[in-house]
Amino acid sequence: MIQSEYPTTENAQQEVADAYDVIVIGGGPAGATVGALLAEWGHSVLILERNTVPRFHVGESLIPETYWPLKRLGLIDQLKESAFPKKFSVQFVSEGWKESAPFYFDEHDPHESSQTWQVERADFDKMLLDNAVAKGVTLRSRAQVLDVIFQNDRIVGVKAKLLGASGEDSDVKEIRSRVVCDASGVSAFLSSRMELKQSDPLLKKGTIWTYFRGAQRDSGKDEGATLIMQTEGKHSWFWYIPLRDDVVSIGCTGDMPYMFAKGSSVEKTFARELDRCPALGKRLENATRCLDFFTTKDYSYRAKRAAGDGWVLVGDAYGFIDPVYSSGVLLALKGGEFVADAVHEALQADDVSEAQLGSWKEGYDAGLENFRRLVYAFYAPNFSFGEFLREHPQFKSNLVDVLIGAVFKPGVSDMFEAMGDIRPTPNEPATPDAITEV
Ligand SMILES: Cc1cc2nc3c(=O)[nH]c(=O)nc-3n(C[C@H](O)[C@H](O)[C@H](O)COP(=O)(O)OP(=O)(O)OC[C@H]3O[C@@H](n4cnc5c(N)ncnc54)[C@H](O)[C@@H]3O)c2cc1C
């Protein structure tokens, strides 16, 4: 079995001072991006990560538009030299077996950005953090932020528990900063406390995922492709993400009551859905599971505010929408750029007001909205992308734009007018046989 816990690395146990320009809560892609860019401008930045570094994380499939923030961070050469499988396309499989032609990203844009990677997040996220540290960020792992410090309604720092390398307890330390940036991922530290988190009522989904070794792979250019495979009856879908060393990440997503039915186990539910996806069953015929099962649920939400006086949210800590289009890391990196730019301006102007720190919200929300509408279309019971494109071939390029993550491009949203108000049915009830089987 692959270990799901990674050992502590000493390099992340740096000394922590009493004050910084910016404290970042969380060392995922969003936190590492904000940190690296702000440090590049000469601001003092502390990243506090409650976990060890590297740490295991779901979300291995990148999409092409990650190229641009990764380029700005100076990481493209490292990625090119890495052993991460190259991803050139995404392929959809409907009704458990009907494979559509892959969407090759370079047919849309021949630029090198059309090729991206499938990454183990422990290594990829560490690459981002190492880069942030190289640019001057202080990184402290095993450092859990427990609270924020308010002064006249403005956040001016955090209280954090800094554990030693072997986990020994420590006192809670107060650390001051001009800005606190919450990049704490789905735990959404600040927006949960401030009750800003709003779940998407139409995307109450849950996921079970694991890794297999020895699965059947396509060859050549398709070897690193992501497959999105709907099961018969469309109650769930699987991702198939080929990783290094003959490992494939496999995850199954469906409505929460369907995925986590009373009296069931994740093993049984996973096996039940696999039976409904012959195309995946065939690929896994000679494969062996090499990781525990993991679960997660109710992860589509957005915060009502993006910032306040002295604080700002970024990445999943602000919002996340369903894994189907692998948008999370892109949004964490792009969001990291938006937030770093806004914080830099705020520090230069000595204005850490909500208006300044949240100045990116409108533009970012517009991009997020493009992903949300395409996710709604994917789950809408009577919608077919094939039919839509046959009726409206002029929108193929808009569709591919969203699939590659070019959601901030002007005009991308035009296609949604033609689609109309399509939406999934909330918490679609499972068929009775599906529930009683498990
Ligand atoms: C089922 C599923 C599948 C997904 N698949 C994909 C995919 O294939 N491709 C993709 O691009 N995205 C995918 N995603 C989304 C992606 O994983 C996230 O969007 C991405 O990790 C967000 O980055 P982040 O930096 O905002 O948060 P994270 O990567 O979650 O980092 C947040 C960090 O904050 C730390 N933290 C939390 N609280 C505290 C605290 N109080 N003090 C200190 N540290 C703290 C955490 O330990 C964590 O390391 C998927 C998501 C789900 C739910």
Structure described in brief:
The chain has 16 helices and 22 strands.
How would you characterize this protein structure?
The protein is α+β, with helices and mostly antiparallel strands and 438 residues long. It is built from 16 helices and 22 strands. The protein has helices spanning 29-40, 67-73, 76-81, 105-108, 121-134, 189-193, 256-259, 266-275, 278-284, 328-349, 354-357, 361-379, 385-391, 396-404, 414-419, 432-437; strands spanning 19-25, 45-48, 86-87, 89-94, 98-99, 103-104, 116-117, 138-140, 143-151, 154-162, 172-182, 197-199, 205-213, 226-230, 236-242, 247-255, 288-289, 294-297, 301-303, 307-308, 311-313, 319-320. The strands form four sheets. Strands 4, 5, 6, 13, 14, 15, 16, 17 and 18 form a nine-stranded mixed sheet that branches. Strands 1, 2, 8, 9, 10, 11, 20 and 21 form an eight-stranded mixed sheet that branches. The longest helix has 22 residues, at 328-349. It is globular. The model is unreliable at 1-11 and 430-438 (pLDDT under 50). The protein binds flavin-adenine dinucleotide. Flavin-adenine dinucleotide (FAD) binds next to α1, β9 and α10.
The largest pleated sheet is described as: 9 strands, mixed
Number of helices: 16
Question: How many structural units, i.e. domains?
Answer: 3
CATH class of the largest domain: Alpha Beta
Strand content: 15-25%
CATH architecture name of the largest domain: 3-Layer(bba) Sandwich
Low-confidence segments, given as residue ranges, are 1-11, 430-438
Instruction: Fill in the CATH topology of the largest domain.
Output: FAD/NAD(P)-binding domain
Mean pLDDT: 92
**Separation of termini?**
25 Å
Please tell me what the overall shape is: globular
Give me the Rg, rounded: 22 Å
Q: Write out the distinct hetero groups bound to the structure.
A: flavin-adenine dinucleotide
The total beta strand count reads: 22
**Any idea what the CATH superfamily of the largest domain is called?**
FAD/NAD(P)-binding domain
Give the helix level as a range of percent. Answer: 25-40%
Query: Structural class, from secondary structure content?
Result: alpha+beta
